[in-house]
Amino acid sequence: MGPPPPVPSLKKQPEQEVSPGDVVSVDTTEVMFPVTVRDSSGRLINDLTRNDFRVFEDGAMQPLSDLALRQVPVDVVLMVDASSSVANNLDDFRRAAQGFAAKLESDDRISLIKFDDRIELLQDWTKSRFQLQRALNRIEPGMFTRFNDALLLCSREQFGSDTTKSRRAVIVLSDGIDNGQGTTTLEAALQSLLKAQVVVYIVSNTEISRAAKRAELDSLLNGSESSIRFNQVTIDRLRLGLKVLDQSEENLAQLAQATGGRLYKPQTFDALESTYAEVADELRHQYALYFTPLNKTRDGSFRRVRVETTNPAYRPQTRVGYFAPRS
Known about the structure:
Layout: E1 11-12, E2 31-38, E3 53-57, E4 60-62, E5 64-69, E6 74-81, H1 90-102, E7 109-115, E8 119-126, H2 129-136, H3 147-159, E9 167-173, H4 186-195, E10 199-203, H5 206-221, H6 225-230, H7 232-259, E11 263-264, H8 272-284, E12 287-291, E13 302-309, E14 315-317, E15 321-323
Parallel strand pairs: 1-8, 6-7, 6-9, 9-10, 10-11
Antiparallel strand pairs: 2-12, 2-14, 3-4, 3-13, 5-12, 7-8, 13-15
């Protein structure tokens, strides 16, 4: 993949809450990988030690320098698609976001971005749940979806390129269907997220949209032949919409897997609270694996990383790799 194309700067609200003490400096030769481990039934595993893990970089085993379980703070960006596909259910998102924030630890930070035809930072980094609540009340519905631009801007401006010992996560509520009016591809957004070492959790409303479109399509197809002919344009539009949803869901799954996150597909907007609570639970049971790469070359190349556990029944989940520093 080539370098991401230039995009406009993220529009920020005047309220800021970032202090110099919030920034952590680390040795750039050390790499940290957040890892979630589940058993075959999907249950989170939280009693492993450093000796239970094996880390490979480009096929070569790496010595682990440290391991921590939940002791590493997490910086979380909540992103909400405020376009027409979600606009009528923003209150459900607000409740889910507040419930999620209540489950974070005191050292964790949170910020809020809403996107539609515009991308807006409603709350910069804060540990204040009250500040988040005020920002949630400022979400207003929009029209189109600049999904790719929003992800790229988030990775660049909220996280930047400097790695820290804080875990980094994005939770985005969207169907992932970009309107094509932006300047960024999904591939470029993924590259930027990997450079910033961000884990992406996607709460997709594709199942909700799919059910609505299928119900409308079935209703039209159950009509008379003349009615079907009369509504053929609408029928074709619905069929195309279902194909677009399928493709978007596939793209979202690949994005989540590559960054070490997960794709959630709630059946209703009422399920958002339980979905966000599940993400919070995963973040509480996430390991932080540290290693110093044996490959000391500072060439900016992409290094593919694989994490295994000594128990073959366990399934570790982490991002596909990282970009080496460049001299």
